[in-house]
Design a protein that fits this description.
The complex is a heterodimer. Chain A is α/β, with parallel strands linked by helices. Chain A has twelve helices and ten strands. Chain A starts with a helix and ends with a helix. Classes of the chains: A alpha/beta, B mainly alpha. At the A-B interface, helix 3, helix 4 and helix 5 of A face helix 8 and helix 9 of B.
Chain lengths: 259, 251
C-alpha cells in the first residue's frame, strides 16, 4: 500500500503541467477549447500539433493564466488562478508566435530586463542576467538597438532571450518556426534541444515537432484527439490525414513536381 | 519596419544626453516659465543665444529643430494675423499700417512668436536628448500621478503598433492599386477602420505578452540614472544664473 502511494506521489511530482477538463469560449461564443486533458512530464519536450484554428495557441495562453477558462490547470503543483498568477508566471514562460507582439520596449536591453524588474530583482542582478543571456544568444551587438529595427529572426531570438532570462522551469513556444529561414530554424532547433528545462512546443510544422518532441498531443476543433509518444503519432497516418496535417501530402507534392 | 519618430536622436552621446532626466525635465520647466514670464524682446536675444548653444551641445542636426518648429508655424501665423487684423479693423481705433509697427499689440504679437518658437525648440531639445521612457521616469520621481505616466507609457508602446499597421496597410493599398480610382474618402475611411481593428488586436496581444512577464500595472523603473556633478552645474545654471540675468535685464 505504501509503495503504491509512494509510486503515485512520484508520478504526480513527475507531472509539471496538468490540465484537467478545460473548456473555453471567447466572450460567450463557440467553444474554442472543449474538455482538454493532458499532462506534461518534468524535463520532457511536449508537442501540441493540429491544423489552424484547432485552439493550440489559446490552450497555451491558459497555462500561465493570461486566459482563464473552466477547468483546472496545475503548474508545478500550483493551481493556476488569479491569486497564483505571479507565482505561475515565474515558472512558465511563453515565446509568442509573432515577436512584434512580445517586444514593446524602446531597446533590446529594456525588453529583456522587463520581466526581471517585474520579478522584483535588484538592478545589479538584472544587469548581470541580461548580459549573460545576451552573450549566450549572440545578441550583445543588439543590446542598445530598438527592437523595431531588428530583422524578424533577430526579433525572434530577442523574444526568446526575454523569456529565458527569467529562468522559467517550463518554456512554451507558440509556432516557433513560423516565418523563419532555414538557418534560423536550425539555430532555434539547436537552442531548444540544448535547454535542460521542460519544453512545450505548439506547431503546425509537424516534421520539426516530430524531430524535437518526446510526446505529442494532436488537437482538432478544440479537442485533444490523441496523446502518444512521437513514434506512435508518426505511424498514425490516418489521423494526421483526417485532420489535415499529413506531412506525406507535402512530400508527395514535392515528389510529383520533380518526377 | 523602422520607426524613428520618437527617440530619434536619443542614441547620440553629448553632455546633454548624459544629464539625469530629472535635471533636464526640471531645467526645461524652469526655462519655459522664464520664457513665458518674459515681456521684453531684448531678453529673447539672450534666450535664443542660449538655445543656440544648447542645440550645438546636443549634437542633434539643426534641420530637426527647424522641422519641429515648422509644426507650430501655422498656429503662430494664424494667431498673429488675427491679432493684427483685429487691431486694423477695430472700430474704436483708427490705425494705419505704418503706425502698426509701433503699436503695443505688435509687440505682443512679436513676443508670442518669440515665446512659441523658443518653447518648441526647448521641448524638441528635451525630447531629442532624453528617451521618452526616461522622461516618464523623471515624472514619476517628481511624484506625478501614476495614471498619467502609465497611460503615457502604454500610448508610447501602442503608437508603434499603429504606425506599423499603417505602414503595412499603405503597402497593401499601393500594391493593389498603384493608381487610386476609388474615392479617397472611402479608401482612407476603410483604412482607418481596419488599422483601428488590427491595432486593437495587436495591442491586446502585446498586453498579454506584458502580463505573461509579470506586468502588474506599473512599469518597472529600469533606467539607471545617476545625479552627477554635471547635473548640479546644469541645475545651478537654471536656478541661479538665468533668473539673476533676468532680474538684471529687467532693471
Amino acid at each position: 500500500m505504501l509503495s503504491v502511494s509512494i509510486a503515485r506521489s512520484v508520478c504526480i511530482m513527475d507531472e509539471i503541467i496538468s490540465v484537467n477538463n478545460l473548456d473555453f469560449a471567447y466572450d460567450g461564443g463557440k467553444k474554442v477549447l472543449n474538455g482538454i486533458d493532458f499532462k506534461v512530464r518534468r524535463g520532457e519536450t511536449f508537442g501540441i500539433i493540429g491544423p489552424t484554428g484547432a485552439g493550440k495557441s489559446t490552450l497555451l495562453f491558459h497555462l500561465n493564466g493570461i486566459l482563464k477558462g473552466e477547468g483546472d490547470i496545475f503548474v508545478d503543483g500550483i493551481r493556476v488562478s488569479k491569486k497564483t498568477d505571479k507565482e505561475v508566471r515565474s515558472k512558465i514562460g511563453i515565446v509568442f508566435q509573432n515577436p512584434d507582439n512580445q517586444l514593446f520596449c524602446p531597446t533590446v536591453e529594456e525588453d529583456i530586463s522587463f520581466g526581471l524588474f517585474n520579478m522584483g530583482l535588484e538592478k545589479e542582478e538584472v544587469n548581470r542576467r541580461v548580459d549573460r543571456i545576451l552573450e549566450r544568444m549572440n545578441l550583445v551587438e543588439l543590446k542598445h538597438l530598438s527592437s523595431h529595427h531588428l530583422s524578424f529572426g533577430e526579433k525572434k531570438r530577442v523574444s526568446l532571450a526575454s523569456v529565458l532570462v527569467m529562468q522559467p522551469g517550463i518554456i512554451c513556444f507558440d509556432e516557433p518556426f513560423a516565418n523563419l529561414d532555414y538557418k534560423s530554424i536550425f539555430n532555434l532547433v539547436q537552442e531548444i534541444r540544448e535547454m535542460d528545462i521542460t519544453r512545450l512546443i505548439v506547431s503546425q510544422d509537424v516534421l520539426l515537432a516530430f524531430y524535437l518532441c518526446d510526446r505529442i498531443a494532436v488537437m482538432n476543433k478544440g479537442e485533444v484527439v490523441k496523446i502518444a509518444p512521437t513514434p506512435d503519432i508518426i505511424k498514425d497516418q490516418a489521423l494526421l490525414k483526417e485532420i489535415g496535417i499529413d506531412y506525406q501530402l507535402y512530400l508527395d507534392m514535392i515528389n510529383s513536381f520533380h518526377s | 519596419m523602422k520607426h524613428d519618430f520618437i527617440d530619434k536622436y536619443c542614441h547620440l552621446d553629448s553632455v546633454l544626453h548624459r544629464l539625469d532626466p530629472r535635471t533636464k525635465l526640471l531645467s526645461t520647466f524652469l526655462l519655459l516659465v522664464l520664457f513665458v514670464a518674459s515681456h521684453q524682446i531684448k531678453l529673447f536675444l539672450l534666450y535664443y543665444a542660449m538655445l543656440a548653444g544648447l542645440v550645438v551641445l546636443s549634437k542633434v542636426p539643426l534641420i530637426y529643430y527647424l522641422k519641429r518648429a515648422l509644426l507650430i508655424t501655422p498656429f503662430v501665423v494664424l494667431i498673429s494675423i488675427f491679432m493684427l487684423a483685429s487691431l486694423l479693423f477695430f472700430p474704436g481705433e483708427n490705425i494705419s499700417i505704418t503706425q502698426l509697427t509701433q503699436h503695443p499689440t505688435t509687440l505682443k504679437v512679436a513676443l508670442i512668436v518669440l515665446k512659441s518658437f523658443a518653447s518648441i525648440i526647448l521641448l524638441t531639445l528635451l525630447t531629442s536628448v532624453t528617451r521618452f521612457n526616461c522622461i516618464l521616469w523623471a515624472l514619476r520621481k517628481f511624484k506625478f500621478p501614476p495614471v498619467i505616466t502609465i497611460l503615457s507609457r502604454l500610448i508610447y508602446t501602442y503608437v508603434f503598433l499603429l504606425v506599423d499597421e499603417l505602414h503595412k496597410s499603405m503597402i497593401a493599398i499601393h500594391s493593389k492599386a498603384p493608381v487610386l480610382r476609388m474615392p479617397r474618402t472611402k479608401v482612407f475611411g476603410n483604412l482607418a477602420a481596419s488599422i483601428l481593428l488590427k491595432s486593437i488586436h495587436r495591442s491586446r496581444m502585446v498586453y498579454l505578452a506584458m502580463e505573461s512577464r509579470q506586468f502588474s500595472g506599473e512599469f518597472p523603473e529600469g533606467a539607471s540614472n545617476h545625479f552627477g556633478l554635471n547635473d548640479v552645474a546644469a541645475l545651478l545654471c537654471c536656478l541661479l544664473v538665468l533668473p539673476a540675468v533676468y532680474v538684471l535685464w529687467m532693471k
